[in-house]
Amino acid sequence: MAETNENTIQHELKTRHVSMIALGGSIGTGLFLTSGASVSQAGPFGAILAYLIIGIMVYFLMTSLGEMATFAPTSGSFAEYGNRFVDPAFGFALGWNYWFNWAITLAVDTVTVGLVAQFWLPDVPSWIFSAIALFLIFLINLFSVSTFGETEFWLSLIKVVTICFFLFIGVLAIFGIIHSNTDVVRNLSVGQHGFVGGWQGVLSVFVVAGFSFQGTELIGITAGEAKDPRKSVPKAIHSVFWRILLFYIGAIFVISALVYYQDPRLMSAADSGNVMMSPFTIVFKNAGIAFAASLMNAVILTSVLSAANSGTYASTRTLYSLAKKGQAPKIFGRLTKHGVPWASLLLTMCVGLVAFTSEMKGGNVVYGWLVAASGLTGFLAWMGIAIAHLRFRKAYVAQGNDVNDLPYKAKWFPFGPIFALFMSLVVIFLQDPEAFAHWEWDKIAVTYLSVPIFVIPYLGYKWSKKTKVIPLQDVDLTGKNK
User: Fold this and answer.
1) Considering the domain boundaries, does residue 10 fall inside one?
2) At what angle do helices 15-25 and 292-324 cross, to 10 degrees?
3) CA-to-CA distance for 116 and 304, rounded, in angstroms?
4) What is the per-residue pLDDT across 355-365, written as a single tens digit (0 to 9) for each?
5) Tell me, what DSSP letter sits at residue 226?
6) Could you tell me which of 148, 480, 152 has the C-alpha nearest to residue 336?
7) Residue 230 maps to which CATH number?
8) Fewer Cβ within 10 Å of end Cβ, the chain: N or C?
């Protein structure tokens, strides 16, 4: 594959691409399938409160990332900011951890594509659909970043249109314009005025909400290839935050109003991934839309493809950033003539092939462990963003700069990143606290496998390279110290 003479990433993502990638990255099966389980666990307003708190946390993370990304736009931002503002060992561990997360996500999503496609063609082996999906994602990411951006724009738009249609139908049903025998007042007032299980119920939904919002940090990755990041990133942050809150809070309210919280179908969708039990499908069918199941299956299929597409993009750019920093083999920093890190893409695709081991003897065990290993990497990335921002702002001021001169200034500093850091730790701990109460080591190992996968590379790199936390006066704000 030919390489660019400059060997630099090309800036081809438009403002609408950046906004839709960030929006689409946070809307997926977490909303379409598991939102019903949240209502069952915490009640209507308990679920809304949990998503609202996590949504605010994500907003602070996005503003933190936005401040750094507009000041120093770079592809593979998390690793780069960790390297420059905290400690090279921190950036090394953060980068490889994030690459691993999205590479495994690609494998998971390609398996899911096969299972979802069997809804229409149950007699066709699922691996055939997985192979087709993997090949298409490879082609989309191979040609140019504009091809990726345009594809992701339309895939995300399908999800957005579906949610808008769902909210429209839901409002009509709530006000009785569409025939419905649903007792809306009864559904919304269950438990203690819409709360079930008290604070424990709300806390239990934090975990689900946290996973649902993962992907919003893609805005930091896209900044390095945006045509005008100082314009597109702030615009994306503000518009995406309000749209996410509207979509999630609005959808959960509609589900709560039209489906009783103890309806067994709400839990079944989360446990089995059954599209027939999706809360969206239930509401559509109750409204008399006969093709509801096929519609939602098609939407879920596009959601999974969108996640796999975005994950491939994020992982290749992260690996590219590591290579340019000398923290990965140099070959992963080479680009095609279209500015695509081809070697990074190939390695990520190889991890995606792990999807096919689930069809082989013993493959499910390997596959299960890989999924477990990537479980908390998204939250670790969020913690990395918060820590990097705290260090960046302190270094910026310590070196005699005025924060009012920043292209984009995060609000409520330092409360924002501190709150995001604290909530990330809370969500991580809440993964399986009972396992610690009884010291069930097998559950602890599966649930928290991501943590040592971050810590061990961090300590190993720190020991081998003798790195230290960078003094504030020596933090590289210009990016010239490569």
Assistant:
1) no
2) 110
3) 9
4) 666 555 555 56
5) B
6) 148
7) 1.20.1740.10
8) C
Nearest to 351 by CA among 62, 11, 46, 105: 105
Q: Which residue segment(s) compose the domain that 181 sits in?
A: 15-466
SS (H, E, C) 283-337: HHHHCCCCCHHHHHHHHHHHHHHHHHHHHHHHHHHHHHHHHHCCCCCHHHHCCCC
On whether residue 119 sits in a domain, the answer given is yes
Do 318 and 78 meet the contact criterion of CB atoms below 8 Å apart? yes
308 alpha carbon, distance to own chain's centre? 11
CA-nearest of 431, 424, 426, 412 to 386 is: 424
Residue 480: the pLDDT is: 58
DSSP alpha helix (H) spans, 10-87: 15-25, 29-32, 35-42, 44-71, 77-85
Q: Hey, CA dihedral for 447, 455, 414, 405, is it positive or negative?
A: negative
Structure tokens, 285: 């069918």
State the sign of the Cα–Cα–Cα–Cα dihedral 476, 477, 481, 482: positive
Reading the block at residue 362, the tokens are 């013993």
> Would you state the structure tokens that stand for residue 29, as one six-digit string?
């099966």
Beta carbons of 421 and 387 less than 8 angstroms apart: yes
Identify residue 56 by its one-letter amino acid code.
I
Answer whether 296's CB lies under 8 Å from 32's CB: yes
Does residue 332 contact residue 319 with C-beta atoms inside 8 Å?
A: yes
Peptide bond into 457 cis (omega under 30): no
**CA 36 to chain CA centroid, nearest Å:** 19
205-260, pLDDT tens digit by residue? 888 888 788 878 877 777 666 667 777 777 777 777 777 788 889 999 999 988 88
Q: How far, in Å, CA of 208 to CA of 47, rounded?
A: 10
SS3 248: helix
Rounded CA-CA distance 398/82 in Å is 18
Helices within 214-291 (DSSP H only) = 218-222, 229-258, 264-272, 279-286
- Alpha-carbon distance of 289 to 283, in angstroms, equals 9
Q: Do the domain assignments include residue 472?
A: no
Contacts of 181 (CB under 8 A, 6+ apart): none
Please tell me which residue, 79 or 375, carries the higher pLDDT value. 79
* Pairwise CA distance, residues 379 & 347, whole Å: 24
pLDDT of 84-100, one tens digit each? 999 999 999 999 988 98
Rounded CA-CA distance 167/163 in Å is 6
Q: Rounded to an integer, what distance in angstroms lies between the CA atom of residue 255 and that of residue 248?
A: 11
Strand partners, 13: 226
Domain presence at residue 2:
no
